[in-house]
């Protein structure tokens, strides 16, 4: 009886849990707290945290690889013997262990399937009218991508390869799907820490950006009221996704997948003839993919691979990339304001990172703290959606250089 009890105890996860796994479980609980108690992007953080929790439960095997063996069939005839002499054997494969559920779900990330589908859903929810009405917003979206290339050189200085540095730098775009898409092609072994860092910083936009924005602007600058944007015609909204797809794909073919799916989703929305497709892409499809992507991203953060010096470096470089990107957008907006006929509130520059629509909301919130009558949301949406395009273009540039 004692032996049975001991065997039962030894079969439990409690008997096999390591300090690293316990630490990662605590980290997942912190993410739960931020998502549920503080409301930091629960749609992202809850599935990521739960995937992290599941991956670090000992003996659960939810990320276990399948174990498949090749068996050589016995030689039972002269014909088989003759073929064997020629090096031809009859064989069959047998799966001893089927593998964990999330192992298979994670293939959507590793094979580059989930990120483009997320982009399609984002496109179906995005209104490019603020960008079309104010093309200068494209410059702010481009400026915010400076954090990507700044961090690229920082990662090189720390000893990362060019492919690894490119994957780390893309965190600065504050675009989780793009970070996953690029990392799976350039540095798949870093997918776990890069994906978790990218999505965590996306969720923490309301915490990270305001101090940077306030440090780089004066009270008077934050009070600037911008001129109302012009009305964009339906024809312009329809032509825009088609033209962007053609131009970007011809210049940067590696960016065609992300840009193409983003603009396809937007065309569903703006054409007015595919309402069912638009609703599916912006609701059911993106919700399903968000669940699968979030859980599988979190599950890559197992203790053995995550609790390393390299991961700490990636997380630090990631926040540097995000901070520099936000600051670059604000600084360029300040410069443009000096030469622009119409006043530009520098706060909208920080929305150039592609965390849609969180970054735009933060710009509006900080602006209203200085001037309650100031409404910057639509103005900030221009750089914000430009940042989505910019991060995809930056990924295309890095793929062209280092793939």
Number of strands: 2
H/E element order: HHHEHEHHHHHHHHHHHHHHHHHH
Low-confidence blocks of residues: none
Biggest beta sheet attributes: 2 strands, antiparallel
Name the beta content range. under 5%
- Structural class estimated from helices and strands: mainly alpha
**How far apart are the first and last residues' alpha carbons, in Å?**
60 Å
Report the total helices: 22
Tell me the radius of gyration: 25 Å
Strand order of the largest sheet: 1-2
Question: Would you give an account of this structure?
Answer:
The structure is a single chain. It is built from 22 helices and two strands. It is mostly helical and 403 residues long. Helix 10 (146-157) packs antiparallel against helix 11. It is globular, with a radius of gyration of 25 Å.
Short characterization:
This protein has 403 residues and is mainly α.
Strand and helix map with partners:
Blueprint: H1 2-11, H2 19-36, H3 42-55, E1 67-72, H4 78-85, E2 91-97, H5 101-105, H6 107-110, H7 114-125, H8 129-133, H9 137-143, H10 146-157, H11 162-169, H12 176-186, H13 191-203, H14 205-216, H15 219-222, H16 234-251, H17 256-271, H18 275-299, H19 303-306, H20 309-339, H21 358-370, H22 377-402
Antiparallel strand pairs: 1-2
Helix pairs in contact: 2-3, 3-13, 3-18, 7-12, 7-17, 7-18, 9-20, 9-22, 10-11, 10-20, 11-12, 12-13, 12-22, 13-20, 14-20, 14-21, 16-17, 17-18, 21-22
Task: Please name the defining characteristics of this protein.
single chain, 403 residues, mainly alpha, two-stranded antiparallel ribbon
